[in-house]
């Protein structure tokens, strides 16, 4: 009975996970533009809808572009 050698194991390659951020569901404006829009009570994304519905109370989403403002 002849002993057969086991097949050689393939070399293991190191696996690196993809670290790319998923794309945002809405376009992100430049920081200073978004800050200026928010300071003037406008949506930081589109610049049209309102951000606050009272004294420092955020609206749930923009009325114009429907971006969720509570999760920005």
Give a structural overview.
A two-stranded antiparallel ribbon has the order 1-2. It has a domain of 41 residues. The N and C termini lie far apart (71 Å). The model has no long low-confidence stretch (mean pLDDT 82). With 72 residues, it is mostly loops. The protein has one helix and two strands. It is 12% helix and 7% strand.
What series of H and E elements makes up the topology? HEE
Assembly classification: single chain
Beta-strand share of residues: 5-15%
Shape: rod-shaped
Structural class based on helices, strands and sheet pairing: little secondary structure
Query: Which sheet architecture does the biggest sheet show?
Result: 2 strands, antiparallel
Strand arrangement within the widest β-sheet reads 1-2
User: Cα distance, first to last residue?
Assistant: 71 Å
Residues in helices, as a percent range: 10-25%
Record the SSE blueprint.
Elements: H1 31-39, E1 52-54, E2 57-58
Antiparallel strand pairs: 1-2
């Amino acid at each position: 009975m002849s002993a057969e050698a086991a097949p050689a194991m393939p070399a293991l390659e190191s696996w690196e996970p993809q670290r790319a951020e998923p794309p945002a569901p809405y376009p992100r404006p430049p920081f200073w533009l978004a800050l200026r829009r928010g300071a003037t009570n406008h949506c930081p994304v589109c610049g049209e809808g309102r951000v606050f519905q009272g004294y420092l109370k955020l609206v749930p989403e923009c009325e114009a572009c429907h971006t969720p403002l509570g999760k920005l």
